[in-house]
Design goal:
The protein is an all-alpha fold. Helices cover 80% and strands 0% of the residues.
Length: 416
Amino acid sequence: MTRREWAWASYDWANSAFPTVVSTFVIAAYFTKGIAPDPVTGQVMWGWMQALVGLAIGLLSPLLGAIADAGGRRRALLLICTLLTSFFTAGIWFALPQPGYAMWALLCVALGTLCFELGTVFYNAMLPEVTTRARLGRISGIGWALGYAGGLACLVLCLALLVQPNPSYFGLDRDAAEHVRATALLVAAWVLIFAWPVLVFVPDATARMPWGVAARRGVTELARVLRSLPRQPSITRFILARLFYTDGLNVLFAFGAVFAAGVFGMGFEEILLFGIALNVTGGIGAFAGGWIDERLGAKMTVLLALVALMVLGAGMLLVETKAMFWVMGVMLGLFFGPAQAASRSLMAQLAPPGEVAAYFGLYALSGRATGFIGPAALAIVTNATGSQRAGMAVVLVMLGVGAAILASVPRPRLDG
């Protein structure tokens, strides 16, 4: 790998600590079990928060992506989003384990998630600039593998330094959940410490222009890209497919720890261990998925991963014992990375040169435009049935619809 390829891929190591610790395994469970009045209410509140964030990301990402294309400011916008993600994550420290702090916790997580997701638009758009089209799948897979490794390393530190030691190495008050809240501070520092290579070694490929000019041109470019979609059926169908299956994946990530805590009574330490196991298998799957992508193609890699996720996901909803939940979950991790990494490389292959960030804005939109539907459906079903299992079943529907639409997308040709 070249220095630019490594610098780009290393950002996955840096920013994956946020979804791993905050959105999935630690803070989500802390909110449900430590802040919300009860687990079911916590899942409902978390669901509506994720729905509103998804709507905001869907509205902002295509526009900001087009502005980045027009103004040559991808790196600057990535820096801003990275700093804000770290800032809002650190704010979670002030969310005490009392229902009165629920809105503060939700606000910090919502703003951190918004900045994290917008940052990935500019980060993903840099991929075609750091490697050849033929190596997009491999480099994207290595990035995802580094992301799982980074999430794993951060989880291990959270467990070994903060959550598990009793008494705390740092004098943290367990009654005030300081040992759990401190994981947010660790994530904030982690992102800042490891995000710099992509900001140093991957400069913008196009010349910069004033922000006002870039904004005007970006709006014009976005309008043109949207008008061109009916003439590009492959991209349109892929974006439509991703509207559904990525929403299913996002719900699975956002509510996995909430489900484990509420249904199987997992505590914070066990959830961390479960997260570590998932990151190990996820990293293995993502790394292997890059080479599978090169041999079978990005589309087939995603389809195979989605089918496996549906089968294993159904099993996780049906099992009654914690041991079987662990087995299914660890196996599920093998297919997260290939589904995500191959989706990113497929978008990079389909996007016209010179408009990559705008299309990755639509790519982010396709992951978040229906982002409010999945969490909202989960919240509604959970509230109506009083069952977390029934609420999580919406994941299977989303994955199935997305896979069916993706099957109709022609395989892109690779040149170079």
